[in-house]
Amino acid sequence: YHFIVGTTARHGRQRLRQNTPRLIMEQIRPLAATPSTRIGLMFGPENTGLTNEDLDFCQFSSTIPTADFSSLNLAQAVAIHCYELYTAVAAAHTKAQAPVEYANSFDLEGMYGHVTEALSEVTFLDDANQIYWMRSIRQFLGRVRLTKKEASLIRGICRKFLWHARKTTKKNTDKKNPGQQ
């Protein structure tokens, strides 16, 4: 999928910024104008909802505002989200724009893997906070709506960082041990 909307009733520091289904679908409307753009809705179990790890795969987080209850049952949440997505897609097709090829989940996960590896290599991510920082980076990059080309560019930058970091590490090792090779 190119964009995934996670549904949740819970709030937390490490959670994506939450909006109503209508606001999120309005943001997605221009993206839905391209027929090849795949948009997914992720719903969690009725008793527990989505975990932070589930929401890591989402670019948007949706909460249905309710007056008397903290959440709705799964069928109600699915119906509301599907209706809002349908109206957004229908409106997008009436205002068709030039097609854009957005990065799909496979592209994004590969890119996040390269970002994690590069940031770990240059010790930006330490073991204790790696999940926290990568969750923040994923949320930031998820809001940007990267194209395939942009995700590939970020992967290329990470590969270059890794190449330079490893080259520098090798030079430093060779300087410390000049007789060993």
Question: Would you write up a description of this structure?
Answer:
By secondary structure, this protein is an alpha/beta fold. It has 2 domains: about 5-95, SPOUT methyltransferase, trefoil knot domain (Alpha/beta knot), CATH 3.40.1280; about 105-175, Helicase, Ruva Protein, domain 3. It is built from 6 helices and 4 strands, in the order ββαβαβαααα. A 4-stranded parallel sheet has the order 2-4-1-3. α4 packs parallel to α6 (about 150-175). The longest helix is centred in the last third of the chain and has 29 residues, at about 150-175.
What class would the helix/strand composition place it in?
A: alpha/beta
User: How is the biggest beta sheet arranged?
Assistant: 4 strands, parallel
Name the shape in a single word.
Answer: elongated
CATH level 1 name of the largest domain? Alpha Beta
Strand order across the biggest sheet? Answer: 2-4-1-3
Q: How far is it from the N-terminal to the C-terminal residue, by CA?
A: 47 Å
CATH superfamily of the largest domain: SPOUT methyltransferase, trefoil knot domain
Q: Which descriptors would you attach to this protein?
A:
181 residues, alpha/beta, Alpha/beta knot, Helicase, Ruva Protein, domain 3, four-stranded parallel beta sheet, 6 helices
